[in-house]
Recover the amino acids of this structure.
């Protein structure tokens, strides 16, 4: 029943822009980050006091600008999105008022209204200049359903009952808990929650799909809601495939209709609550090329592959069945609802029709699976695309959650668990890392791989190969390998580990905000992820060994026990000098993350000497300059002895042909001498010749010793001189010369100490000393 008066209807219409030229001007203005006005010259001073800046002084007026507030800027961004999605009836400004009953006081200001031939959107916007948890919207939401019902009556009276109407609650930098009462009130009112993830996703859709983005947008907003009252009945063939005789249908359908029925599971945070999201966003150039191909008469004979949600009942009325086949011909009745068919393969072909004049007159062949499990859909997608564009390691890491959760082997289930934990850290509204980890095609600060690696090495989870667990990895992990209800144990462990990590990262955010927000520093960065999570795991092991924690300790109890150690770390990082920061931040390469972890441990060790992991002791020794200098001295003197003794021995054995006896090695040394000559010339501009005998390497000595192992001529044999027992057996030639390979390895570690920060520990230096003392 209508309740608006004619004057109210006219007033509402007067606050809408319908002229395309004027809409374009509004769009250009709203796309800017500042407002612009032109005023009389004598008013300029008052406006400047209010924060306005002069752009230009004209003959009769002055043009001013002012930065938009974050709330105004957000409203304008959403307004522009609707314009870019093709809406050509929009409100002029924030003064759009809409009644929701015949009571004069029952009316409300609407931030944005957007209308086209099929839909009307009413959008309320809330924003914050910084990321934070939202306060309660209880007062606004409690009567929301009543107001929405009234808005619909008013708008149907003005624009007709055939238009679908949706209320959208849009937020920026505000986190609303998915389990909160506010979300329940929104759902009860059948409103749509449009958060930061949704905004970014729609922007990406517009960028990649242009005006065709409208279809996916409608699917997102109206998912599973009725499109219109028209019935969908099409000729089809029903068949069965696979071991489980899965039902499928083959039919042809108009692209315009399928575009509304279908939905693309793009890997974006906006779709995170969906089943596995695996599709890439379309490539704009490819999409344009496909549309042009269709416009020029081209067509695609191969079928699109979709899956209909099993909750949406497809009715098949067979006309006949061949006696020679189990397939049947008949009429397929499809629910006329948005986003009920997930496109597994063929999104480019389908969306190529979105801007084509043939979208209503052509038909496209479709193979429609029915009630396919999420993992099966994903498997089909992976199978189809395995020989096309490679699926990235990052995407594989995220999809492991969906692919392997119920896998028969423990190693795969643990992959799924790690993936699920990383994903949860990014999508949980209460997580300090909310939206900071790339778990989709949306951009974010952190990549997922460091989290997966850290969770593997941290000790928080066990390590398995096939179905066998590494015993050393299970003792202090938070996962009970004896629980045979694997899914239940994985869910429990996911909660324990996620909550612990959120508490630890939250501690950094709350108490050391400057460190937390520095993405080029040690904690919230890709390189910082591994050492920080591994440190948490290492502290868990240390505190469990100390009997302070037990297996059944809660995440809060674990964090409380770790807190003083984390404080020591962060306080130490905060007090670093610029030179100290630079020293560690410049470390690159494969060993950087481990070095950062040891650095973190060393900071804590200074404050709490009882925290002294074996690997930290080893690291300290490898960074002890005095110990490394001692090792270098041993290596140099051992090499000198080897060279002099070997050459002297060879010359006694083969007085006139000793160099020919080692001809192959000599040729290699000559090449090295020439390369060294070239290198020095390029670096210092001097020509310096090197004798080939200066170019021996330790492995050359080893080859000579082994080749002439027992050769004697009034001198000791190499066997007598170079046999050393290092505790790995002392029977064969290989065992007696094993020390030479060890020497070569140690020499390389010392040679790279300046770049890769390896060095030798005390045990290794003692072995060098033992070898040295054998000769001297």
């Amino acid at each position: 029943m209508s309740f608006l008066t004619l004057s109210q209807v006219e007033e509402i219409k007067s606050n809408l822009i319908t002229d395309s030229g004027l809409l374009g001007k509004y769009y250009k203005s709203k796309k800017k980050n500042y407002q612009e006005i032109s005023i009389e010259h004598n008013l300029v001073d008052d406006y400047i006091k209010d924060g306005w800046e002069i752009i230009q002084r004209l003959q009769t007026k002055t043009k001013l600008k002012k930065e938009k507030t974050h709330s105004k800027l957000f409203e304008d961004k959403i307004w522009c999105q609707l314009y870019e999605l093709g809406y050509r009836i929009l409100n002029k400004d924030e003064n759009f008022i809409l009644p929701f009953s015949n009571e004069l006081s029952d009316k409300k200001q609407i931030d944005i209204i957007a209308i086209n031939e099929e839909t009307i959107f009413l959008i309320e916007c809330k924003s914050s200049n910084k990321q934070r948890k939202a306060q309660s919207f209880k007062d606004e939401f409690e009567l929301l359903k009543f107001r929405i019902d009234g808005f619909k009556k008013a708008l149907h009276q003005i624009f007709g009952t055939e238009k679908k109407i949706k209320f959208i609650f849009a937020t920026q930098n505000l986190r609303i808990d998915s389990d909160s009462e506010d979300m329940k009130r929104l759902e009860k009112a059948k409103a749509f929650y449009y958060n930061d993830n949704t905004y970014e996703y729609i922007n990406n859709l517009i960028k990649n799909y242009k005006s065709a983005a409208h279809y996916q947008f409608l699917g997102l907003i109206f998912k599973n809601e009725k499109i219109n009252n028209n019935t969908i009945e099409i000729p089809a063939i029903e068949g069965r495939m696979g071991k489980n005789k899965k039902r499928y249908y083959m039919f042809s359908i108009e692209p315009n209709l399928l575009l509304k029925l279908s939905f693309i599971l793009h890997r974006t945070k906006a779709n995170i609550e969906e089943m596995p999201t695996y599709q890439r966003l379309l490539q704009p150039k490819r999409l344009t090329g496909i549309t042009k191909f269709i416009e020029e008469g081209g067509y695609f004979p191969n079928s699109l592959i979709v899956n209909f949600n099993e909750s949406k009942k497809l009715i098949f009325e067979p006309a006949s069945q061949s006696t020679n086949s189990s397939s049947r011909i008949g009429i397929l009745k499809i629910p006329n609802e948005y986003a009920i068919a997930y496109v597994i393969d063929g999104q480019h072909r389908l969306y190529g029709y979105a801007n084509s004049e043939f979208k209503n007159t052509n038909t496209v062949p479709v193979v429609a699976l029915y009630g396919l499990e999420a993992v099966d859909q994903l498997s089909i997608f992976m199978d189809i695309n395995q020989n096309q564009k490679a699926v990235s390691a990052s995407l594989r890491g995220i999809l492991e959650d969906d692919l392997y959760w119920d896998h028969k082997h423990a190693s795969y289930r643990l992959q799924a668990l790690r993936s699920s934990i990383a994903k949860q850290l990014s999508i949980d509204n209460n997580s300090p890392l909310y939206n900071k980890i790339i778990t989709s095609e949306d951009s974010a600060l952190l990549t997922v791989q460091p989290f997966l690696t850290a969770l593997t090495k941290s000790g928080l989870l066990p390590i398995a190969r096939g179905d066998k667990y590494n015993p050393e990895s299970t003792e202090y992990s938070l996962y009970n390998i004896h629980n045979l209800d694997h899914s239940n144990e994985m869910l429990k462990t996911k909660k324990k580990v996620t909550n612990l990590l959120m508490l630890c990262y939250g501690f950094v955010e709350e108490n050391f905000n400057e460190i937390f927000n520095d993405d080029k520093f040690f904690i919230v960065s890709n390189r910082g992820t591994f050492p920080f999570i591994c440190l948490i795991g290492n502290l868990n092991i240390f505190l469990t060994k100390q009997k302070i924690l037990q297996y059944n300790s809660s995440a809060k109890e674990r964090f409380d026990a770790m807190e003083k150690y984390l404080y020591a770390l962060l306080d130490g990082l905060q007090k670093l000098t610029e030179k100290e920061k630079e020293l560690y931040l410049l470390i690159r390469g494969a060993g950087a993350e481990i070095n950062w972890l040891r650095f973190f441990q060393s900071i804590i060790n200074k404050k709490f000497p009882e925290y002294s992991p074996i690997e930290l002791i080893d690291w300290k020794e490898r960074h002890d300059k005095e110990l490394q200098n001692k090792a270098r001295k041993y290596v140099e003197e051992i090499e000198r002895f080897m060279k002099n003794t070997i050459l002297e021995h060879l010359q006694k054995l083969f007085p006139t042909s000793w160099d020919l006896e080692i001809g192959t090695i000599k040729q290699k040394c000559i090449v090295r001498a020439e390369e060294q000559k070239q290198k020095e010339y390029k670096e210092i501009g001097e020509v310096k010749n090197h004798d080939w005998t200066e170019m021996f390497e330790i492995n050359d000595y080893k080859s000579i010793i082994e080749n002439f192992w027992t050769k004697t001529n009034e001198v000791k044999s190499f066997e007598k001189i170079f046999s050393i027992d290092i505790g790995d057996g002392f029977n064969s030639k290989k065992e007696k010369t094993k020390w030479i390979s060890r020497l070569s390895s140690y020499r390389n570690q010392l040679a790279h100490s300046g770049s890769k920060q390896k060095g030798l520990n005390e045990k290794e230096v003692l072995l060098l000393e033992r070898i040295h003392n054998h000769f001297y």
Notes: Residues 625-653 form the longest helix (29 residues). Residues 387-391 have pLDDT under 50 and may be disordered.
